[in-house]
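Cross-check.
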Amino acid sequence: MSAKYLTSLIGLIYSLPFIISPVLAEEEGDLSEMNELLAILEQETAVATKTKMNTDYVPGIVTVLQGTDLEAMGARTVWEALGFVPGVKTRINELGRPMVMVRGISGNRHTGHLKLMVDSVGANSSFRGVNDSLMMIPIEQVERIEMIRGSGASLYGEFSYTGVINIITRQNDTRIYGSAAKFHNYGMGGQYSYTDPENNLQISINAAGWQSGGADVNSGIDSFGTLRPQQAHLSFSPGPTNEDEQIRSLAINLNYKKTNLSFYRIKRKQGAYFGTGVLTPESDGTPKEDEYWHLNLEQKIELSPTWKSVLKFNISEDEKEDFEMLLPPGAIVGPPPNGPPPNGPPPGAPPPGGPPPNHDILFPDGDLKVTYVKERRIEGGVDFSWTGWKGHEWLLGLSSAQVKIVDAWEASNIDISRLPPTPLPAIQLRPEDKDVWIDAGKKRRILSAVLQDQIGLTDDLTLTLAVRYDNFDDVGDKVTPRIAAVWKLGEPHLFKFQYSEAYRPPTLAELYLPETGPGAHGNPNLKPETSKTYEAGYIYRQPDLVSRVTLFYSKMEGLIAVQNVGGVIQHQPLNGDEIELKGIELEIEKRLGKNWKTTANLSFLDAKDKTHHEDVVDSSEFIGNIVLEGKLSDNLLAVFNYRHIGDRKRTNSDTRDDLKGYDTLDLTISYLNLGVKGLTFRTGVKNIFDAEVSVPSSQYPDDLPRAGRTWWVQVSKKF
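Predicted model, tokenized:
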């Protein structure tokens, strides 16, 4: 379906009340759970200013997704839920990374552009820039997802480049649940909440897990078979991909008077998916593991009725063990076309050995590599808020953080210190045999200060001025300002304007990965990426209708990308890429009579890579959603979700046509209070019409096919 048809469908929404007659009369009295799902609510968030405000009145563009709504719409994970946000597209890459593209920018080419938080605690890895495991959090654990579309750097600093995602876990429910889905997917979990109002005490435990045998997907020929057709028979492709997944997630919160102590941990195991250009055997299980945890302590102190503060301290660890098959067993590779690197072997390397440089090299067991890195972050700070000056709400934030690489190693069945690389009898996996990958003990220190003033110029006009200063001991200083205005023109009309700047510091991997042989290595001379963004928004609000229009323009400079700097296989990250984004996002939320509601959005994007004079890779001009929710009976709810993704762009050097877009339709049925109060049964079908869905790949000529039609069921009991 083309974008013009999607636009017509959204326009038709306004006339639906005259087409759809109410199915049932709405009951009088308090809103039931069913009617709460259908209501158009005014939601509050603190993510945009660190002070609670209605989402339409906050500066910048903010979307809040409620966990209960997301369950009813059939979202299974945080990653799936983000697809409902205007201007956001989700996909995986060859390694199974759940990626989020905001206004055309994702981590496929550039990494670490989204600030990720769990219960308002930053969770990005300083080594990798991302934290993929958080995308796999089961939606049953989520109270809500708050997302800033656009820069959030003036408040949140590093990695708040294209957006901020804050995942708030459930803390107020007591319930259990279980689920099953196609591809041997099973999940279960539960929450327990204890509240003692007299002592102002609350304790909650929220645990969940799921596992999957992976989508039943067969790859096309991989890049090894494409580049070496005479050895294509050695490749495991075409063949089934290994998409096994396992998630364990735990959140514990303790609130006592003005003290909050929270703990969160998630562990993810996964298969190799499509691999690094070489498909791995399906029987390899889950060779990749990620684990993240944090412990956060906050103490609120009220110095006076107008002067308040929050003391914060947190410690977190992030570790990742990765497996790659770079060549299949039996592969034969010739010497580098230009011979050994011109500078010879790295300092301290043993004399060259193995086959002479002009001989082919046999890899009887393939080229296998395991990498491991563990980092620890310790951070402390304080936020002061002051409202003693009429019409002003001041915020001052001070913080200090230190990141340290606790352990890191690389193990391989190839001796890469010898030129040319020499196969070894077996892969070395034991720590005593490990090769140094990046120096353990490598550190990063960050000092930060934030100053913000929300100025009520009139009852209808609010101005927000903010500036943040960050000092990195390895990449220098950054100052990120923001100026925003919110103007209420009459009861239904609201206008918003914002100018903001952002940056993304180089990751520790980009800075410090050593040149231990042929391949990519770090660049200690990297500078932070920068961006400037202009946004203008209009909101029209009535009791049964909310519509929003957002215009945006962003200029991003100094983007970091790996480039060829010394021969065919010598690569290094460099600053230099420049991207320009402009577009419009349309949103509508409307009640259709008493028993139906629709939420729709349509985004148009013009994303240009000014450095390479082409469209941004994988960007789509049009993406959109239409969600239709209907009350079929007192306890029966149906939700239809139509999703449109436009054609995906390729690089100019790729001779293939742009990858065609796709349209999918999902259906979710919820039966509330099934015989017993609080018992809910949900079932759904994703991609009802079994549309062909693929995501772009430079390593697979036929791209990356995804699963077709799937089904799932869930049962939950709330106490």
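The longest strand covers residues 570-592. Residues 226 and 232 are 7 Å apart (CA to CA). Passed to J.P. for a second look.
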